[in-house]
Amino acid sequence: MGINILNHFYNKNCNSPQPFSIEKSFKFPYRGFILTGKCDKVDKVDGKIQITDYKTNYDVPLPVELEYNYQFTFYHIAFERLQQKVDELIYYHLKDNKLLPTKRGQGHIEELLGELYLANDGVKNGQFEPFRGFHCRWCDYPEECNKEGYDNTLYKKYFSMNCATTSKR
After folding, report:
1. Which phi and psi angles does 90 have, rounded to 5°?
2. CATH architecture of 2-128
3. How far is CA 87 from the centre of its chain?
4. Averaged over 138-152, what is the pLDDT?
5. For the CA atoms of 77, 83, 85, 90, what is the dihedral angle to 10 degrees?
6. Distances in Å between the alpha carbon of 97 and those of 9, 19, 57, 70, 72?
7. Regarding predicted confidence, which is higher, 161 or 39?
8. How far is CA 110 from the centre of its chain?
9. Pair 62, 74: CB distance under 8 Å
10. CB 73: neighbour CB atoms within 10 A?
11. Does pLDDT of 152 surpass 70?
12. What's the mean per-residue pLDDT of the chain?
């Protein structure tokens, strides 16, 4: 299946222009938070900024899932911070070789900020249960999962299997 995905991707994109940026990192303070991330690909098409995020999910997201995908809102904020207007955000579903465009506006930003403030308050008040998974290898706070009261069995198993590839930033 992976070879087919790569072949379809190559055939569709082999004549595309070189990207403006690949794996564009960002980290900056924003309204009391430190936002950090990495954009898969940034293009400038006719002077317009287009950010593409490649996904290997099994299913294509529903329109409502794409509309409320916070990752794209983070990208929008990051480029706004760089004083660059994002004209288009694209969810590239590799399995089906589909490009799903989306846009972000002030309503998306306010919703994300509300979620960030809610999560921040929960953490400050000790009301935060870690969500463990594949993403743990990039976490800046793995010691928080070892606090007493959390079921950290999965974390310990995961961390011990991945300690060779996990690095503290």
Report:
1. -125, 125
2. Alpha-Beta Complex (3.90)
3. 18
4. 62
5. -50
6. 7, 18, 12, 22, 19
7. 39
8. 18
9. no
10. 22
11. no
12. 80
From residue 26, give the alpha-carbon distance in Å to each of 22, 56, 58, 87, 163: 12, 23, 28, 18, 25
The CB-side HSE value for 24 (13 A sphere, CA atoms) comes to: 19
d(CA 103, CA 73) in angstroms, rounded, equals 9
Residue type (1 letter), 145: C
What percent of the chain is modeled with pLDDT above 70?
82
Model pTM?
A: 0.72
> From CA 128, how far away is CA 124, in angstroms rounded?
9
Report which of residues 130 and 77 the model is more confident about. Answer: 77
Contact of 131 with 106, CB cutoff 8 Å: no
46-50, 132-136, 147-151: which is most confident: 46-50
Spans of all domains in the chain: 2-128, 129-169
What pLDDT sits at residue 159? 44
Residue 83 pLDDT = 75
Q: Which residues pair with 50 in a beta bridge?
A: 43, 88
Q: How far is residue 156's CA from residue 143's CA, in Å, rounded to a whole number?
A: 10
